[in-house]
Amino acid sequence: MNKITLLTWVLGLVLLNGCIVPKKVVYVKDMMPDTAYMAMEALPLRLQKNDRIQIVVSASAPELAAPFNGGVGSYKVQDDGSVSTVVDRTNGGYMIDYNGNIDFPILGTLHVEGLTVDEVKDLVRSSLIAKEYITNPTVKVELLNLKVTMMGAVGNQVLQVPEGQITLLDAIARSGGLDVVADPQAVLVIREENGIRKKYVNDIESKSIFDSPTYYLQQNDIVYVEPRTAVMTPREQINRQYISFGIGMLSLAISMFALFK
């Protein structure tokens, strides 16, 4: 009986050798069910240098808006003689330069850095009215290059956000969730504000994540999830597997020899 027990233990150790048991991650585990929590309002994004925005001007007489839509699409004459705007979604839009400006047709240089999309819309609209180009224009402004970089123990990729808004939890989910070695209490967001980079540390196991200034991500944010332990390179992982297998087989051979000699 002792020999059978010993053999069972040896086989069990061989199978478990080199295995990593991941720690269970429970998101916002301190939230109580059926309890109301205040929701933080998402702040509007502020435009930054190198952002690309699309601006489309419309009017009751489309031919009046045509000069202000250079490069954003084309114009189609309907059967009844009216002119409609056909917007090209693949157009690169207007890039905000180093000085925070864009060059807009006819209106010239517009300073838009630090403004929200709605504020840019109001700026263009008021300029068109003030200079008596269009009496009652409709202006649509869209941020084209909202992206977030995911790094560390969450997958390495760049998320494009065409809908214009994304939360930290959404970004983690789109990246496939946390790796088994990820530290849920060390989810970092690196953000550039007014020419200064700041690092924010988030704990996604706590409800405090909803109060974080980086819960709603901004354009060009970098999300880095720290591992609990040092992450091995692929070569190190292969070497570890070989070593674990060799130790296991050697232990088994010694035990079998001692058992049946």
From TrEMBL:
Q: Name one Pfam family in it.
A: SLBB_2
GO BP terms: namely: monoatomic ion transport
The alphabetized UniProt keywords are: Cell outer membrane, Ion transport, Lipoprotein, Membrane, Palmitate, Polysaccharide transport, Porin, Signal, Sugar transport, Transmembrane, Transmembrane beta strand, Transmembrane helix, Transport
Q: Main localization of the protein?
A: membrane
| Topology term for the membrane | Multi-pass membrane protein
Q: Which InterPro entries match?
A: Poly_export (IPR049712), Poly_export_N (IPR003715), SLBB_dom (IPR054765)
The membrane-spanning stretches of this chain are 242-260
Q: Name one GO molecular function term.
A: polysaccharide transmembrane transporter activity
Q: Which domain of life is it from?
A: Bacteria
Coiled-coil features, chain-numbered ranges: none
- Might you report a single GO cellular component term? cell outer membrane
The segment(s) forming the Polysaccharide export protein N-terminal domain are 45-143
Q: Please list the residue ranges annotated as the SLBB domain.
A: 147-225
Which family does the UniProt entry place this protein in?
Belongs to the BexD/CtrA/VexA family.
Identification of the protein by name:
Sugar transporter
Give the source species: Sphingobacterium haloxyli
